[in-house]
């Protein structure tokens, strides 16, 4: 029927225009956030907080307008092609989660969260967990209330997890975590007990930060970053921000550690590559948006670990590094490779962890969060539980809560988000295994600095898909099987056994 | 009556919350614009245009919601203190101008304006006025239609002028322009005919732009710019952007002309000082916002001309300049003073004009605009009319339309805005005269680099007032008399007669 088709087309157009507008407000918020982290003078803070909060509440109101629901219902009862159906599915999901939560609760959560941040900061600075306790306890209450509003029949922690990853069941992720726990703990113990001394001081010395920035730019050049749609700046906590038209990388510089800025830069390059690979013509719609935070993290971990931490990459890049830093002239490729893959067995800080112990930090947080949300753990029991699990998993106990359960800011805004970091690493390994089958000697391409085949493969298979597939569908579509820990465990076992000469 | 007072207080609070929200969207738009001009990679253009347009339309919708009108009417029929009455007056004005214009017309104007910009760019690049003609003609039609929607009983050009300056009658401004025309033309002719050769090549040579940036920072330091609430960046067309919490200066650098970046920096510093002087506690309301573009320009012109172009300032600043640029070691204060005040009698470009000829460029534009809007001038007659008036006023005719009637982008967005540049200069001179009476030897303070008394006086008398007074009220309140050209004419006559040794 021509008329009905025409009608559904124009209903669809209306929904699309609506979601584009909402996305534009979100992207504007992203620019304000980037500016705040990289350029804004300190004094701008009070006004910026108000601007961000105005945009966020406007975005919420636009999304939850009655008309959004009407358009969705109309479209759901009509004929839609695959792409349209995906768009409607994603907007419906976003809409439901927004409309289910009373606005007073949204406001109270936002306020409690913003009060909790300075309290957390103070608690961390003073090493006094008690200062943070009442906020954390109240946040648990409010987050549980929110979760129950969204789905009273589901475990609240599951609902929280689904905020970040709606299409991978928590049970699947937990099964993968079990496998990681079983595989990683013995490997880490093995390294702690039998690990040969590796070249951890290959890059000892002072590396001036201006030259480090040139090295970071060199790395982005080599990897093929599109400077016409991006830029590099400094931020205390590196992040990526932007869209397919403008995806910006940030990094930080430590004059004692030139590898830190480099891995951070390559990590954020991975995130930027995902954004830049999204469809230009679908800007502002779910088809032109990234799939989920886990998939996003797979892209950053892919470039950071499967490219930036390979021997092939250092064969390619070490000469460039030495051109900038002649002081490193004696470092060999083997030493560089070992230095960038060093396992810090006495480290207690997640963000300073290596590719191996990192995931034990994540698993620990997921377990504690879950116990806390379930009421199995009282707020004051968290520090002891933290230290107990650190000892179990990594054989090291932080000397202070600041270096333990107070190290991350995440709980001031949500629970159930940490898992995606590990999902990203696991899927990155699975992607590398697929790429090894589908591309002609990808490791050789890295050695030659010919990154286009790898970049293009990821763009075609992941980035250009946007949110057309759900996360589990996308994983199967691209790799031919569901998410599995096997490739990651094989990869780290082989890599670290070789580096630490374990047998 | 306690109840009624309470009621009107809560109605007022609701209006205030509403206007703060709208202002926050506007300020977010300002951040996006600043970013676009200073940091955004080229490729970001399409997405940024969409983000800006979304925020602008949202701001318009929030302002024109029925509830805004209801709150205004309620408050207007009740008791309000002076500040509240000013807030209601300003919001009413903004609301009426927004609500009077049908949204289709708003959209058509925005679209025509954004299509006109590349057409203007092309016309200017190719020196082909014909390319721009149809757009300019259509813009005239649409702008007249808009003006008639706002006030069908008023001359449309007057309505257009009132967009930027609602509280100074156009007739007042035109009377001042007549006085300027009468005073300036003979002075300019005198300089052209009898002007002694002044030291226009005192700063000949190449000045590297990195060092120029250091000089610009020195100047901002000396003037007392609050770096905790601001920053300095480069932009092709210098501008200031921000709020009382974060007011950013931009400038540009020309290696052949170190005075250009310096005057641009000091000019934008003046704008920033206005923003930074606004009341923190009134952020987001008319009481914490600048009065009008004419008053804003008075602050930039005050610092640029009455401070930055004085001999006293160069006595203070030339040693700093020479520290950065030893190549200028032989330049004397007198030479620097003359160089920064040089009259370029054969210049045809407004933005390169000196303090004297500049206003003839403005008067010419105002006359042509007015004739064009009144239908006394057809679009194709503009170039000839332009050249005729240039000859009359400045005795010089541009060789091309690109250097003539195509030089400014302004007409692609509006008519009736140029006057405020001259209002700013005229009021700046009036302010200086008042300051000379009220402060203890202000010129001595400049010579000593003690800018606080001047800055504080402006902050107290102008900035902290926000929009409490209307423009004409503010001018009288601060200087004791209405806007007058007298002080400006006395100032330039005395200054330029001395520099050019005219009698």
Automatic annotation (TrEMBL), chains A, B:
Domain of life: Archaea
EC class of the enzyme, as a word: hydrolase
Coiled coil: none
Free-text comment on the cofactor: Binds 1 zinc ion per subunit.
Binding site for Zn(2+): 267, 271, 297
Its EC number(s): 3.4.17.19
Family to which this protein belongs: Belongs to the peptidase M32 family.
CDD domains: M32_Taq
Stated name of the protein: Metal-dependent carboxypeptidase
Record-linked PANTHER family: CARBOXYPEPTIDASE 1 (PTHR34217:SF1), METAL-DEPENDENT CARBOXYPEPTIDASE (PTHR34217)
MF-aspect GO terms: metal ion binding; metallocarboxypeptidase activity
GO biological process, one term: proteolysis
Annotated catalytic residues: 268 (proton donor/acceptor)
Keywords noted in UniProt: Carboxypeptidase, Hydrolase, Metal-binding, Metalloprotease, Protease, Zinc
């Amino acid at each position: 029927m021509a008329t009905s088709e025409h009608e559904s087309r124009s209903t669809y157009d209306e929904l699309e225009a609506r979601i584009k507008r909402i996305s534009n407000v979100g992207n504007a918020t992203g620019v304000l956030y980037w500016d705040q982290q990289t350029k804004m003078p300190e004094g701008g803070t009070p006004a910026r907080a108000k601007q961000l909060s105005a945009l966020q509440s406007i975005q919420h109101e636009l999304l939850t307008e009655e008309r959004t629901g009407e358009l969705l219902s109309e479209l759901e009862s009509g004929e839609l092609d695959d792409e349209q159906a995906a768009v409607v599915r994603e907007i419906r999901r976003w809409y439901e989660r927004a409309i289910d939560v009373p606005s007073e609760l949204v406001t109270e959560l936002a306020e409690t969260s913003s009060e909790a941040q300075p309290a957390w900061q103070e608690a961390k600075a003073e090493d006094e967990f008690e200062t943070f306790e009442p906020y954390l306890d109240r946040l648990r209450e409010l987050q549980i209330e929110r979760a129950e509003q969204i789905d009273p029949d589901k475990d609240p922690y599951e609902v929280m997890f689904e905020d970040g990853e709606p299409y991978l069941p928590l049970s699947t992720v937990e099964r993968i975590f079990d496998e990681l726990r079983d595989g990683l703990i013995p490997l880490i113990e093995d390294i702690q007990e039998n690990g040969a001394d590796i070249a951890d001081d290959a890059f000892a010395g002072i590396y001036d930060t201006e030259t480090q920035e040139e090295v970071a730019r060199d790395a982005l050049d080599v990897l093929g970053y599109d400077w016409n749609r991006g830029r590099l700046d400094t931020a205390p906590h590196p992040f990526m921000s932007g869209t397919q038209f403008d995806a910006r990388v940030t990094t930080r510089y430590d004059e004692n550690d030139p590898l830190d800025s480099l891995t951070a830069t390559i990590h954020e390059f991975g995130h930027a590559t995902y954004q830049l690979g999204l469809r230009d013509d679908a800007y502002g719609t779910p088809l032109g948006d990234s799939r989920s935070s886990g998939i996003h993290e797979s892209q950053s971990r892919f470039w950071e670990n499967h490219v930036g931490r390979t021997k092939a990459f250092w064969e390619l890049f070490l000469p460039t590094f030495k051109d900038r830093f002649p002081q490193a002239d004696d470092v060999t490729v083997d030493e560089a490779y070992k230095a960038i893959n060093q396992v810090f067995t006495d480290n207690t800080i997640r963000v300073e962890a290596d590719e191996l112990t990192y995931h034990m930090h994540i698993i620990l947080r997921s377990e504690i969060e879950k116990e806390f949300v379930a009421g199995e753990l009282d707020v004051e029991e968290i520090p002891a539980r933290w230290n107990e699990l650190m000892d179990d998993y990594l054989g090291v106990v932080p000397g202070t809560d600041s270096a333990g359960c107070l190290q991350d800011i995440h709980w001031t805004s949500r629970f159930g988000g940490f898992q995606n970091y590990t999902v990203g690493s696991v899927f990155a390994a699975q992607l590398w295994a697929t790429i090894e089958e589908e591309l002609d000697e990808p490791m050789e391409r890295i050695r030659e600095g010919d990154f286009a085949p790898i970049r293009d493969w990821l763009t075609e298979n992941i980035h250009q898909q946007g949110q057309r597939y759900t996360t589990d569908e996308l994983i199967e579509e691209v790799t031919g099987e569901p998410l599995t820990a096997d490739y990651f465990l094989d990869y780290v076992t082989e890599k670290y056994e070789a580096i630490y000469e374990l047998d």
